[in-house]
Amino acid sequence: MNEEQKIIELKKKINHYDFRAREKQIKEEKRQQKLNAPVKKKRRFNIIKFLFVVFVLYFAYTAFNQYEMLADLNKQIKEKEAIKAKVEKEALELKRDVEKLQDEEALMEIIEKIAREQYKMVKPNETIYIDKNKNDNKLIQGIGVEEELKNN
Predict the structure, then answer these.
(1) Rounded distance, CA 93 to CA 55, Å?
(2) Is the separation of the CB atoms in 148 and 135 below 8 Å?
(3) Chain-centroid distance, C-alpha 82
(4) Cys-Cys crosslink for 100: which of 62, 65, 72, 106, Cβ 3.0 to 4.6 Å?
(5) DSSP 8-state class, residue 96
(6) Do residue 90 and residue 109 come from a single domain?
(7) d(Cα 82, Cα 61) in Å, to the nearest integer?
(8) Does a structural domain hold residue 45?
(9) What is the pLDDT of residue 142?
(10) Does 66 score more than 90 pLDDT?
């Protein structure tokens, strides 16, 4: 048995050496295939592309905000133009009033109207009749006691 064991061990060694040699050969073939194969680009984090995307997003955000701001400013401009038109109309009316004041007769009529309506003045020898049942009469509001007006 001793010889048989030696033979088995020799076979194992031979098989082992053959196996190792074949393994080295296979590894070398794989390495050669890798060297000859076309190189695939690895997908790496590209900082330039990232910065470009960030810039585009920032540009879109800024453009949207500016569009909203312009819309708001246009709305304010329209409101200011409406106010301007109203003020110009009032200024035109005031100019007409000033022109009326240049005429002495018109001026006297305006003064008389203001004196009668606001200051409750009357002409000499003029008699005024006031209906006390009418509380909304403008002549009554400045004359008499307020308590009498409230009771009626």
Answers:
(1) 56
(2) no
(3) 23
(4) 106
(5) H
(6) yes
(7) 32
(8) no
(9) 57
(10) yes
Whether pLDDT at 46 is above 90: no
User: Does the CA dihedral 72-78-84-90 come out positive or negative?
Assistant: negative
Same domain, 139 and 127: yes
- With contact defined as beta carbons under 8 Å apart, do 138 and 145 qualify? no
With a CB cutoff of 8 Å and minimum separation 6, the contacts of 101 are 107, 110
The tally of domains found in the chain comes to 2
Phi, psi torsion values for 107, nearest 5 degrees: -65, -45
- Predicted TM-score (pTM) of this structure: 0.40
And the tokens for 81? 């133009």
Which range (39-53, 105-119, 125-139) has the least confidence?
125-139
Same domain, 112 and 140: no
Strand blocks (E) in 24-63: none
70 is a domain residue: no
